[in-house]
Design a protein that fits this description.
- With 222 residues, this protein is of the alpha/beta class.
- It folds into two domains: 148 residues, Rossmann fold (3-Layer(aba) Sandwich); 66 residues, DNA polymerase, domain 1 (Orthogonal Bundle), CATH 1.10.150.
- The chain is 44% helix and 13% strand.
- It has a six-stranded parallel β-sheet with strand order 5-4-1-6-7-8.
- Helix 1 crosses helix 4, helix 3 packs across helix 4 and helix 8 packs parallel to helix 9.
- The chain is globular.
- 44% of the residues are buried.
- The mean pLDDT is 95.
Length: 222
């Protein structure tokens, strides 16, 4: 069946920001006397604060979790957000999909403020039909809420007419829980094995390589 809509993850997929988030989380944890190595933090990138913090600090109570989440948001916004840049051809892939008649939705565990910034950074406001952020849901990835909410913004389009593009196992897990297939990109720094085991139907190096191979990709299947 033809793909009518594409749900794009942002961090690590369209925007080169995963390492920046790792740094922000590392500093946020340090503010509370917690030392967590970068590789361990990176392994949780793709989750929102509601999922990431309990995984890394299961003993933290609700108040401490909220405080650490606030610290990460503040540090990322003030110190790292300005350094985030789109991956090459990120906008071009979105424009190509739109020209092919496919609806573009951004579905991210990022905050609404960050997502809005990224839309402008990509110069993609006229390409995006809808967005879903952590502000719109109770639970972030790998819970299905973000993609389920995004689907609700696509009336008349079935799950088998939608595909997700993401960079983390958590994107893939969340999509599968919503019965949506996922094409993965390596640009977020996760190994192929992790992406395959999560259920990715195809893996590309980045959005630029996906654009180059668009005609033969699952995005163009009829």
């Amino acid at each position: 069946m033809a793909i009518k809509a594409i749900l794009f993850d942002i961090d690590g997929t369209l925007i080169d920001s995963n390492d920046l988030h790792v740094s922000a989380w590392e500093e946020a944890f340090a503010e509370f006397g917690e030392t967590i190595d970068r590789q361990t933090i990176h392994g949780q990138i793709g989750k929102g604060a509601d999922m990431l913090i309990p995984t890394l600090l299961p003993e933290a109570d609700a108040a401490e979790r909220a405080a650490i989440a606030d610290a990460h948001g503040r540090i990322f916004k003030t110190k790292y957000l300005a350094h985030a840049q789109p991956f090459p051809n990120a906008r071009n892939l979105m424009a190509h999909a739109q020209k092919a008649g496919q609806t573009i939705v951004l579905a991210s565990s990022a905050s609404a403020e960050e997502l809005d910034h990224y839309v402008d950074l990509l110069g993609a406001r006229e390409l995006v039909t809808a967005t879903t952020s952590s502000d719109d849901v109770e639970h972030t990835k790998p819970a299905p809420d973000i993609f389920a909410t995004a689907l609700g913004k696509l009336p008349g389009i079935g799950r088998d007419e939608v595909i997700v593009i993401g960079d983390t196992p958590y994107d893939i897990e969340a999509a599968l829980k919503s019965q949506i297939a996922t094409v993965a990109v390596r640009s977020g720094g996760f190994p192929d094995q992790a992406l395959r085991e999560a259920g990715a139907i195809r893996i590309y190096s980045d959005v630029s390589s996906l654009l180059d191979e668009y005609a033969a990709s699952p995005l163009a299947e009829r």
